[in-house]
TrEMBL record:
InterPro entries assigned: Maln_transptMadL
Segments passing through the bilayer: 30-50, 62-80, 92-112
Keyword flag Transcription regulation: no
Cellular component GO terms, alphabetical: membrane
Organism: Gallaecimonas xiamenensis 3-C-1
Protein name: Malonate transporter MadL subunit
Protein biosynthesis keyword on record: no
Keywords: Membrane, Transmembrane, Transmembrane helix
Length: 136
């Protein structure tokens, strides 16, 4: 299977990691600071710029879209693993903060659901009113 768009992904990843390492060094942290995020932003910016200029063929565009789609979940999973490890080694306050964030997130699901339903019903009411006024 031929994989398209790998070069662009690799270049963006290497640049992002290098910039993240440089940022870490500049602010005095012996770690990569935001390198993966920078790589993702570079991938989006360079990919859309090349697409607007018409440089990419269809298969390359599809390959870049594929890698963009799988890149985010992989990065989120890696960050989540690091966050759990940091919380376990960071003591009870970090664990308490993590549990509180999860509980608050679950508690807000019904509230957000209600807001979504209310705005949807308001839009339907406005659409029906506009439709009725056209027929008058």
């Amino acid at each position: 299977m031929i994989i398209y768009g790998v070069t662009l992904l690799a270049v963006c990843t290497l640049l992002g990691v290098a910039i993240g390492q440089l940022l870490g060094t500049l602010i005095g942290i012996p770690a990569n600071v935001g390198g993966v995020g920078i790589a993702m932003v570079l991938l989006v910016l360079v990919g859309s710029t090349l697409q607007k200029r018409g440089v990419l063929d269809l298969k390359s565009e599809q390959g870049i879209e594929f890698f963009s789609a799988i890149y985010v979940p992989v990065v989120v999973a890696m960050a989540a693993k690091q966050n759990v490890y940091g919380a376990l080694t960071g003591g009870p306050m970090a664990i308490t903060a993590g549990i509180a964030a999860v509980v608050l997130g679950f508690a807000l699901v019904p509230v957000l659901d209600r807001w979504g339903r209310e705005s949807q019903s308001e839009e339907q009411t406005e659409a029906m009113t506009a439709e009725e006024s056209r027929h008058v």
